[in-house]
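This follows on from our talk about sequence and fold. Please put the record directly below this note.
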Amino acid sequence: MKPLLILLLLFPLICRAQVVNTEKLRLDKQEKGFYGEGNLDLGLARNRAGQTVRLGTSARLELLRGAHRWILLGAYNLTQFNKVDEPGSAPKNFADNGFGHLRYNYRAKEWLAWEVFTQAQYDKIQQIDLRLLAGTGPRLRIVRTDSAQLYFGALYMFEHEESRNEFEEPEAFTERLILDDHRLSTYLSAGFRFTSYLAVNHITYFQPNLSNLSDFRISSETTLSIKLTDRLSLRTYFQLIYDTRPLIPVPNTMYTLNNGLSLVW
């Protein structure tokens, strides 16, 4: 019970992005026990703030007991940016986003698991003060071999978002927006191991609004991992996000390119 108690105690501490890729943070170990991983990333991104350089940290913990799996994820990012319309301006530093995610997974069959999750996040660049998610649904194993794996998930998700639209005119006010949505969160996750030290993982999310299917988000991310030692790996990943109807006026398309180190224990 001690590892589970650690998970529950740590969750409020890291619970403070648009589509968060929790699939890439899944250790998916098959042996019973307690596992953890820490990541350090240095990346380049283009979004509403302009051109940015980002330093990020993330951590994940997993506890597997028989058919029951608990997963705790968290991340925090610090960004330095220059506005694209002011190339000579001094760079600014600020903490732009963070999230905490708790997921329970029950394996009903070798190929079928049922998942329940909750998540809290914020994103200063996208002007999201708070986004709360909760959902449940099945996860299906389509392929699993020593060198490849493929999973499909289809979950119902409730979303609560509190955002602010900050107008640039001095006399204008800050508009506060609150949104509650019911979405379908589907994903296709694939992983390929080419050698003992080289692996590629890909995940695509599709999240339509159940009351308006023309309102949807798509997130696609590909990660290249090179193992340096048994516990240390070098990672490069590219993420592309498309949102047809963001709550406030931000770009519909955003991308992120990151490089970093991953430590498993």
About this structure: The longest strand covers residues 174-193. The chain has one domain: 2-264.
